[in-house]
Design goal:
Layout lengths: L13 H9 L32 H4 L7 E4 L5 E6 L5 E8 L14 H9 L8 H11 L2 E5 L7 E8 L3 H13 L5 H18 L3 H14 L11 H6 L2 H11 L5 E7 L3 H11 L23 E6 L5 E9 L8 H12 L5 H9 L3 E10 L3 E11 L3 H17 L4 H18 L3 H13 L10 H6 L3 H11 L6 E6 L1 H8 L5 E4 L5 E2 L2
Parallel strand pairs: 2-6, 7-11, 7-12
Antiparallel strand pairs: 1-2, 3-5, 3-6, 4-5, 8-10, 8-11, 9-10, 12-13
Length: 500
C-alpha cells in the first residue's frame, strides 16, 4: 500500500516547553513500547528529583466536539480550530473491522482496507496517489487486527477541502478492487508471511494472543496463505458493501471549518451512502484464564529469549481502567519503571523489559515482556515473577506513584496541542460512550489513584498462578527453565504444536 505524506506544521508553545520539563517520559496507554534489540553494557538511568505538577496544569477543558447526525444515520463530530488553515478528517466505521470477520477468513477486513486505496470506479491507484500529492493532502485506510473498526483518515488545506474530501469519499464509497492490484498485494503479503516467521516478536505476539484470547477473533494477528489465495475482488467488494454502513460510523472533522456551511456540504457529498439494516453485533468477551499456561515457540539457534506473560484484564469502560493505567506506568511503562530498572539496570538480564495493556470495547490483556540472553532465561523469568509478586504484595512508594501520575498527565497535556489528538479524543469518547466531561477530568482521575488501588488491581489482574507465559527461543536451552512454571506446550515457528 502506498504511503502519502503531507508536511506537518509543528507548533511550539510555552505550554509545551513547561510540560516537557515536567515529564521525564511517558508511554500513552494502548501503544506498545518496543524492546531494545541491541546488547552491550546497559546505560544507567539517573533518577532526578522533580517538581510536582502544578495544579493549574491539571485543570483542563478541551474543546467539545459539536455532534450532528446526517439523514443517512452518520454521526458527525466537528471541532472548529482556526489557528491554522488545516483540516483533518477520520471515518471510524464500526462492525467493519477484523473482530467481525468470518472465522475462516482472518485478514479479510485488513486486506479490504489495504485494497481500498488501490483504485476506485473512476481512478487508478496511480491517479489517486497523484491527486493526493497535487492537493498537498494525506490519505490512508486501515483496519487493524483485533479492531471493531475500519478507518479512513485524510488531511489537507482548508482552501481545497472539498477537493481532497471528495477524493477520500471516492476511496471510501467506490473502491473497485482491481484484480491486478490485488495480485500484487497478494504477492507482497505472501512475502510478509514468510518474513513474519523469522521475527521472534511476531512469534511471541501470535502465540500470546492465541492463548489469552482463545476463540475470540482478537486471537488473530495475521492472515494465512489459504486466505490470501482464496480472496477475490468480488469477495472484498462483498465485505465492503455489506459492512461499511453509515449508521454504524462516525465522521470526525477538526480544523479550519465552519459548521454552518459544512453540514450542507456533507449531506450533499454523502447522499449516495445509504443506511442499511446492519447492526454491530460483537462476539462474546474473552475470559481470563484460570490456570497458568506455559508455551515455548522453538526457534533453533536463537541467541535470545523473548518472554511475554499476562492475562485478560479490563475493557476501556472499566472502573479499573485508571488504576490499571497508573499501575502499569509504575510497573513497566518506561525505562525508569520497576521492570526495566530491575531486569536491565540491576541484573543485566534483558535488553529491555516493559509492560502494557490493551483496553478496547472488550477486555484485553495486561502483560509484561522482555528479551533476554538465552543463558539467563531462567533468572530473567524469575525476576519477572518476583516483580509481579512485589507489585501485588507491597504498595508502590509515594515517589513511584507520583512519577507514574506525572508521566501520564504530562503526556496527556502535551497531546492537547494537536487538533488530531483532540479529534481522536472526541471519537474515543463517542465510541465508548464516555461521560461528556471525561477528558476534562482525565488528570483528576489519574491523580485520584492511590497506592492501595495499584495494589488491588495488581492482585486482581496479575496473578502468577493464572499467567499465560510465552517464551520464544531455542527450546532445547530454555525448556528446563520454563518447566519450573508448569507443563510446557511446544510450537514451531509455523505455529504448529510439536511434541518433545
Amino acid at each position: 500500500m502506498r504511503r502519502r505524506v503531507m508536511g506537518r506544521v509543528i507548533k511550539i508553545s510555552a505550554f509545551w516547553i513547561v510540560l516537557t520539563l515536567l515529564a521525564s517520559s511517558a508511554t500513552p496507554q494502548g501503544s506498545r513500547t518496543s524492546s531494545e534489540s541491541h546488547g552491550g553494557d546497559a546505560s544507567r538511568v539517573e533518577h532526578k528529583n522533580r517538581a510536582p505538577v502544578s495544579k493549574e496544569l491539571l485543570e483542563v477543558r478541551i474543546p467539545r466536539a459539536r455532534e450532528f447526525t446526517l439523514s443517512n444515520g452518520l454521526t458527525v463530530l466537528v471541532i472548529e480550530d482556526h489557528r491554522l488553515p488545516l483540516v483533518s478528517i477520520q471515518y471510524s466505521i464500526g462492525a467493519a473491522g477484523p473482530v467481525f470477520e468470518p472465522a475462516d477468513l482472518p485478514g479479510l477486513a485488513n486486506i479490504t482496507a489495504q485494497m481500498m486505496e488501490e483504485g476506485t470506479k473512476s481512478k487508478t491507484s496511480l491517479q489517486i496517489a497523484e491527486a493526493v500529492e497535487s492537493l498537498g493532502a494525506s490519505l490512508s485506510v486501515s483496519s487493524g487486527y483485533g479492531s471493531y473498526l475500519l478507518s479512513v483518515s485524510a488531511s489537507g488545506l482548508a482552501d481545497n477541502f472539498d477537493a481532497w474530501f471528495a477524493l477520500a469519499n471516492d476511496v471510501l464509497l467506490n473502491p473497485s478492487f482491481p484484480k491486478d492490484e490485488l495480485d500484487q498485494l497478494k504477492e507482497r503479503l505472501r512475502i510478509g508471511l514468510r518474513q513474519q516467521r523469522t521475527d521472534p516478536d511476531f512469534l511471541a505476539t501470535e502465540r500470546f494472543n492465541r492463548v489469552v484470547y482463545g476463540p475470540h477473533p482478537a486471537a488473530n494477528v495475521t492472515t494465512t496463505l489459504a486466505v490470501i489465495d482464496a480472496l477475490t475482488p468480488e469477495r472484498l467488494a462483498q465485505w465492503h458493501n455489506e459492512r461499511l454502513a453509515p449508521q454504524n460510523a462516525i465522521l470526525g472533522i477538526a480544523g479550519d471549518v465552519h459548521v454552518d456551511s459544512l453540514l450542507p456540504r456533507l449531506e450533499a457529498a454523502l447522499a449516495n451512502w445509504k443506511r442499511t439494516a446492519l447492526k454491530e453485533l460483537p462476539p462474546a468477551d474473552p475470559k481470563p484464564a484460570v490456570h497458568r499456561g506455559v508455551y515455548v515457540v522453538d526457534r533453533p539457534g536463537s541467541a535470545q529469549t523473548n518472554l511475554y506473560m499476562g492475562n485478560i484484564a479490563v475493557d476501556r469502560r472499566s472502573p479499573d481502567y485508571f488504576p490499571v493505567l497508573v499501575a502499569n506506568q509504575a510497573f513497566g511503562g518506561n525505562g525508569s519503571a520497576r521492570l526495566f530498572t530491575k531486569l536491565r539496570e540491576e541484573k543485566g538480564y534483558t535488553y529491555g523489559a516493559y509492560s502494557w495493556f490493551i483496553a478496547r470495547k472488550y477486555p484485553g490483556p495486561w502483560l509484561a515482556a522482555g528479551n533476554s540472553r538465552t543463558d539467563v532465561t531462567g533468572p530473567a523469568m524469575a525476576e519477572f515473577i518476583n516483580e509481579i509478586q512485589r507489585l501485588r504484595a507491597e504498595p508502590v512508594t509515594d515517589r513511584e506513584l507520583e512519577d507514574a501520575k506525572r508521566a501520564i498527565v504530562a503526556s496527556f497535556a502535551l497531546s492537547l496541542e494537536s487538533k488530531d489528538e483532540l479529534l481522536g479524543y472526541a471519537i474515543t469518547q463517542k465510541i465508548y460512550d464516555l461521560p461528556a466531561d471525561y477528558w476534562d477530568t482525565y488528570p483528576q482521575k489519574v491523580s485520584a489513584v492511590s497506592a492501595a488501588d495499584v495494589r488491588r488491581v495488581a492482585q486482581q489482574y496479575l496473578d502468577p498462578d493464572t499467567l499465560q507465559v510465552v517464551a520464544v527461543g531455542a527450546a532445547s536451552a530454555i525448556i528446563p527453565a520454563m518447566r519450573k512454571y508448569g507443563p510446557v506446550e511446544i510450537y514451531n515457528v509455523e505455529g504448529k504444536k510439536i511434541s518433545r
